[in-house]
Write the structure tokens for this entry.
Amino acid sequence: MAVVSAKEMLLKAYKEGYGVAQININNLEWIKAVLTTVEELKSPVILGVSEGAAKYMGGYKTVMAMVRSLDEFYNVSVPVAVHLDHGSYEGSYKALEAGFTSIMFDGSHYPFEENLAKTKEIVAACHAKGVSVEAEVGSIGGEEDGVIGMGELADPKECDIISATGVDMFAAGIGNIHGKYPANWQGLSFETLAEVKKVSHGVPLVLHGGTGIPAEMVQKAISMGVSKINVNTELQLVFAAATRKYIEEGKDLVGKGFDPRKLLAPGYEAMKDIIKEKIAVFGSANKA
């Protein structure tokens, strides 16, 4: 199936009460792991790409070429969107030009009026090309490519205004954090989520920082209008752990165990297992 906008898959998820995973990708192994797993489970998916990850992989055009080629090679039949994650104003336009099918413009660090104006502008540019848009109000805690947020709770009044700009999905800070969650994390603010849902104009909501949030919390958030859940750190952790185990057991020293195709295989399989777990929790299997 051709790589598509995230709009229709999220509207379907919002209507039917399940969540679509955004799995952030970092290299060829990540893309392969996601595409082969979602095809097996017949689940839609969103491939998240931070600006830093795009630079690491050789630029936005390289990312799109890799995804389109692998999508064709594996004969993927499910909807796949390629989404700029926490895009800057300039990065949003570069990704749009390179063929990304979905853009998150993160203007949460700007004064609200500037965030609003820039969001409206990017919505118009993206919709002219059939590309979906995500906006954010209330910064997400933790660090994402050098952007640090303190886990603010979004202002429902601002959410009302931003969600009325025509965005296709909307991220509001509800106490969630990028990266590992600290032991004293107080959990998601479902009170804030309920208030945001009331003023979101039927726009599917997004939960950032999906790694470390208990499954029952995620499922409650989905029942309250969250249709997209972002996952990144968890895959990085299991990939690193499986690779470390392979080397510590000396398998890279046996035969041609040093071959990158063998060296990276345990991490690849570990990621596929986590992706399967997330799809089960989010309820998107057989929803393509």
Q: What stands out?
A: DSSP finds twelve helices and ten strands in the chain. The beta strands are 20-24, 45-50, 80-87, 102-105, 132-137, 142-144, 147-149, 169-172, 205-207, 226-231. The chain has one domain: 7-233.
